[in-house]
Amino acid sequence: MFVSHGATRCAIVAMMMESEDEEKKSPSLSALGWQTPISSLIREDFVPRDEWATAHLTLEDALSHRTGFPPHDKALALHYGDDDHPITMRDVTRSLRHLPAGAEPRVAWRYSNYMYLVASHAIQTLTGRWLGTTMREWIWAPLGMKSAYFSLEDAQAGPEDLASGYYWDYRNGGGYGRVPFMDLAGAGGAGGIISNVLDYALWTLRMVMAPDSGVDYDAPMTYALGLMTVTYRGHRVYTHGGGMEAYGVEVFFFPDLDYGLVTMGNTAITSNIVGKLMAWKLINDKLGVPEEERPDSEGYTKKAFDEMLAIADGAVDRLYPGRADPPLPRALPLGDYAGTYFHAAYRNIAIEVMDNSDGIDGKRKLKAAREHFVWTMAFEFEHVSGEFWVIYVEPRGSGAIVTLFGKAEFKIGITGKVESLKAEFFQDGSEGVMLFEKIA
């Protein structure tokens, strides 16, 4: 069995559609529809910063990634509150009031796991029970999916084998490393399902058996309600991939061909790459596409993968092209920047000085381990000039395939001590700027 991540979203959408048939079991679902404002369901909890968004964002907006909210995945903690209680979907939903949006609602497409966690909270609130129980009763049982689970503990207690996750260490010259099992308590409806290809094939079979809409379709790739859809050689195809710290899933289906397929693997990113290559090979075989007319998927994939490995090269030049030369020295000794910094949504960042043996070529001087979060990762800081730094985000389990980076700036107060840290966690600035107050 494998963790499905992104493919879980389709189940959330299916549950929303199924709710119309479940009114007798859950009367509170009777008025539920795609245009239902989220705040009408969970008013005290769903309070984004924007007043208009709070009042008007609908379930359709949330499940189609048109709320304007960027990922903010790095903010998903495993514990919340003064009592440090385990994460709940309510905690995640309430944290939105502390997070900046990346765009105005319904203006730009912004992929957001958060919104599927918000939908999870809405479903649990209306049904009065755990999402996994509802998913099993409404979706898995009717389809005969007997090897599907919604928690790591349930999957490990089941009779099936759970695949261990691995990564290839690109940074240190190769070799496989094992990735610990991921705590899925915070994944919810964004990626909490654990299953296998046999069970997912049952779900895919149901999707290809859906009645044809009878509407001609020819358009570029678009996204709606948990699936991407596009035309390929005159056929409508629906697809969605997903990946966790050490797993990758790809789902494709062609309703008019009664054809679908699912791939699963136990590495992050690379299993998705291989899955897509396999899937398109089988799809082209199914359609009888001559070899000379097939896209060069392997060549394109290799080029994209090489670019992915090198994405952090030249980060300083990309983020600070007009920096001082020579750079200005920092104002304080390195140790004075160490400490604990707090943001209401991103929680604590505990920064410490790196050992001489750490970092990349000795350039990275500060680090912060993010162990108690849904996505485990490390932050590493490289000094640029004055109080300006680059912050590198190293996800666990990727083997340095993906290194994100953004700007960071320390603020020194009138006392001559560090007061706060301003940080961006995406190189394009799409997640906005987070202000962390130094608390220790």
Automatic annotation (TrEMBL):
Transmembrane segments: none annotated. Residues 32-268 form the Beta-lactamase-related domain. It comes from the Eukaryota. Pfam families: Beta-lactamase, DUF3471. InterPro entries: AmpC-like, Beta-lactam-related, Beta-lactam/transpept-like, Peptidase_S12_Pab87-rel_C. Residues 326-424 form the Peptidase S12 Pab87-related C-terminal domain. SUPFAM superfamilies: beta-lactamase/transpeptidase-like (SSF56601). PANTHER family: BETA-LACTAMASE-RELATED DOMAIN-CONTAINING PROTEIN (PTHR46825:SF9), D-ALANYL-D-ALANINE-CARBOXYPEPTIDASE/ENDOPEPTIDASE AMPH (PTHR46825). Belongs to the peptidase S12 family. This is Beta-lactamase-related domain-containing protein.
